[in-house]
Write a structure and sequence with these properties.
Layout (H helix, E strand, L loop, with lengths): L1 H7 L6 H4 L4 E3 L3 H4 L2 E6 L4 E12 L9 H9 L5 E4 L3 E4 L10 H9 L2 E2 L2 E3 L7 E11 L4 E4 L2 E5 L1 E2 L5 E9 L2 E12 L14 E2 L2 E7 L12 E10 L5 E11 L2
Parallel strand pairs: 7-17
Antiparallel strand pairs: 1-2, 2-17, 3-6, 3-8, 4-5, 8-15, 9-10, 11-14, 12-13, 12-16, 16-17
Length: 247
């Protein structure tokens, strides 16, 4: 399960060094202080529907088993189903737009969203999650599990590489926050697909106190730095900031 956790919980890369100059906000002034986007190159896809919240993740003792449970609860059947290679994979065909699916999932589960969390929300089996959906931005059309022809992120852009680190009070907290790749929807997967690309795909990032250095106190400011780059070298830099208090 640790592999699955890192695939969405899941760089030493310096984000500023590879990010392009164009920066976009994800919402109003309050949310701009929580999540910031910077475009890398000229991606034909984009992240949307960001949410930062506390939810179950599990512990090292149970292999962070609740990570998968929480992710699947956010995008439940029939539209999304468990997939061995994707965790949350395509389910019943459904048409775009896909920019509110995670919002509905977070609201339905009743998770506490915001930029300030209590220590209990970042320890003892709970963690702070950053989730979003990735959708086509322009250009390609083709088949996907959701339609015979429509806007897609084509398989040729995959695998999309995902790398990330977490900082605590400006110092390294989790150097392997994200270290995974999103595969194409093709015959290499189990079960396989025979389509031209993704109509949309989610991303799940989460961390918890026991992932950090031993003896770390939970209080302070945190930042998740994540980059996604496709096979053309285009993508996005994402920075999410939050704080944790003792109570």
């Amino acid at each position: 399960m640790r592999h699955i956790v890192r695939a969405g919980l899941v760089l030493a890369l310096t984000v500023a060094a590879i990010a392009g100059p164009a920066s976009t906000s994800t919402g109003g002034s309050e949310f701009e202080r929580v999540v910031q986007l910077t475009r890398i190159g000229h991606p034909s896809w984009k992240p949307v529907d960001f949410h930062l919240f506390s939810a179950p993740i599990g512990t090292a003792a149970d292999g962070y088993a609740e990570f998968a449970t929480t992710a699947l609860a956010l995008l439940p059947p029939p539209n999304h189903v468990f997939h061995h290679d994707l965790l949350v994979g395509p389910g019943a065909a459904h048409q775009p737009p896909y920019d509110t699916e995670l919002a509905l999932g977070v609201a339905h589960q009743g998770y506490h969203q915001g930029r300030h969390f209590r220590a209990a929300e970042f320890s003892s089996g709970s963690g702070v999650w950053l989730v979003w959906m990735n959708v086509p931005r322009r250009g390609a059309t083709g088949s996907s599990p959701d339609f015979a022809s429509g806007p897609i992120i084509p398989n040729g852009l995959f695998p999309i590489e995902v790398r990330g680190v977490a900082l605590h009070n400006g110092a390294s907290f989790d150097p392997t926050l994200a270290n995974t790749s999103v595969p194409p929807l093709d015959s290499s997967l189990d079960p396989p697909f025979a389509v031209d690309g993704h109509s949309h795909f989610p991303m799940f990032i989460a961390d918890t106190l026991d992932v950090g250095p031993p003896g770390t106190k939970p209080e302070g400011t945190y930042a998740y730095h994540v980059t996604l780059t496709d096979q053309q070298g285009d993508g996005w830099s994402i920075v999410a900031r939050f704080s944790v208090s003792a109570r």
